[in-house]
Design goal:
The protein has 116 residues and is an all-beta fold. It folds into 2 domains: 11-59; 64-116, no CATH class. 0% of the residues lie in helices and 49% in strands. It contains no helices and 9 strands. It has strands spanning 11-15, 22-30, 36-41, 47-51, 54-59, 80-83, 87-96, 99-104, 107-112. The strands form 2 sheets. The protein has a 5-stranded antiparallel sheet, with no helix packed on it. A hairpin with a 3-residue loop joins strand 6 (80-83) and strand 7 (87-96). The chain starts with 10 loop residues before the first strand and ends with a strand. 22% of the residues are buried. Bound molecules: zinc ion (ZN). Zinc ion is lined by residues 16, 18-19, 23, 41, 43-44, 46.
Length: 116
């Protein structure tokens, strides 16, 4: 079986254990043979570490560059966002299909999402 060689900075579609869907991941580190050893989810910044092709650890991102809050977007628990007033927040619960609870600093706010 021929293995694909990856390079750092490349984007791949991969299952994110935090987003619980396939997300774009940016390759952070590869072996000499081009196998991915570390990839970061673009949506939640979670870094997944691979060893011999198997997921070995996941560290949830504390990144500074969370995506701006977008009410049309569908958020999931654990995703982070940047709000222009409240700053960086993390989705702590999906209340229903249009409401989420987001923790900003030490305050949880109910936000809307999935608005068309
Ligand atoms: Zn993710």
């Amino acid at each position: 079986m021929k293995k694909e060689a990856f390079t750092v900075g490349q984007t791949i579609e991969s299952m994110c254990s935090v987003c619980e869907v396939d997300q774009k991941h940016v390759v952070r580190a590869v072996t000499k043979l081009g196998a991915i050893t570390q990839a970061a989810c673009e949506a939640c910044e979670t870094v997944t570490t691979f060893s011999r092709g198997a997921k070995t650890s996941v560290s949830v991102g504390k990144g500074k560059n969370a995506s701006p809050y977008d009410r049309t977007r569908v958020y999931r628990k654990g995703q982070s966002m940047m709000h222009d007033k409240f700053g960086r927040g993390e989705v702590t619960a999906v209340v229903d299909s249009n409401k989420i609870d987001v923790l900003f600093g030490d305050q949880t706010r109910r936000m809307i999402h999935a608005q068309n």
